[in-house]
Write a structure and sequence with these properties.
The complex is a heterodimer. Chain A is α+β, with helices and mostly antiparallel strands. Chain A has helices spanning 2-6, 9-21, 37-48, and strands at residues 53-55, 58-61, 65-68, 72-78, 88-95, 102-108, 116-121, 127-135, 140-151. The longest helix of chain A has 13 residues, at 9-21. Chain A is globular. Chain B is an all-beta fold. The chains are: A alpha+beta, B mainly beta. Strand 6 of chain A pairs antiparallel with strand 5 (56-63) of chain B, so a sheet runs across the interface.
């Protein structure tokens, strides 16, 4: 949906009209503050540098359909042993459409025993979230999940 | 002093992997919300969390406005010896909170 925002008003209206005819127009509230895919990419670049991010190892556990974006339980686990020679150094979580692309950075040590972190996050819109794990050998692994949010967080009015 | 909740097992066997659950009461105001008058509500969040086990850091987190109010963070560690876990939260407007919990390792 975010592409529509960047297109012209005419394109937007015709598309929205077309979608309405098809009976499938979602209720979209345009927000000024929204991280763009470019911001997401640059936030990820800041963490990984020029390294290649491979898909796998990381498991991102979030409900696929969320009623309230104000508090969404999230668990990130990495399928990797935790030994001094080979362990997960950090886990970074990013989102696509909140006002800021970062969600949290979590730094673990070899004594963690299990590379797993849980927290509760906010989601301003239905979107994709990405978790990236940095291993002690310098490689990066990632997982992404799409989430549908029916009540958004972050930018709503205060009474 | 802000209220924190810590949940760790009281006892563990040496080498056990234990889960540490922490919760700190905090509004986590994102800085992206407006009041009816149109003013932005200033950001007030916890930005950092650290956990030390007998003095050495075992876990650290950078938090952003996308973390829900009353940040809940849970993670794991290996029980190596009896001692104390110390937790520290720092945030905007000079916010600082600490908590600690003891464990007996057999």
């Amino acid at each position: 949906m975010h592409r529509l925002i960047h297109s012209t008003r005419r394109q937007f209206l015709s598309l929205a009209g077309g979608a309405a005819v098809a009976g499938a127009v979602p209720v979209v509230t345009l927000r000024a503050a929204e991280a763009t895919p470019a911001m997401l990419a640059s936030a990820i670049r800041q963490v990984v540098g020029d390294a290649v991010v491979r898909t796998g190892k990381v498991k991102l556990d979030v409900p696929p359909l969320v009623e309230n974006g104000n508090t969404v339980p999230m668990t990130v686990s990495v399928d990797n042993p935790m030994t001094p020679e080979n362990h997960v150094k950090s886990i970074h979580v990013f989102n696509e459409k909140n006002p800021q692309p970062n969600v949290g950075n979590f730094y673990l040590g070899p004594n963690a025993g299990r590379a797993q972190v849980s927290t509760r996050i906010r989601l301003a819109d239905s979107q994709k979230i990405t978790a990236i794990a940095k291993l002690s050998d310098g490689s990066f692994w990632s997982a992404s999940v799409d989430i549908i949010v029916t009540l958004a967080a972050c930018t709503e009015e205060v009474i | 002093m802000a209220a924190a909740l810590i949940n760790i097992p009281k006892k563990a066997k040496r080498g056990d992997i234990i889960e540490i659950k922490t919760l700190m009461s905090h509004i986590m105001e994102t800085g992206y919300r407006h009041m009816a008058s149109g003013e932005i509500v200033p950001r007030d969040i916890i930005t950092g969390f650290t956990c030390r086990y007998n003095g050495s850091e075992i876990f650290r987190a950078d938090l952003f406005p996308a973390i829900a109010a009353n940040p809940f963070i849970s993670f794991f560690t290996t029980a190596t010896e009896s001692g104390k876990f110390e937790f520290e939260w720092i945030g905007d407007n000079g916010f600082s909170g600490t908590a600690s919990a003891s464990i007996t390792v057999e």
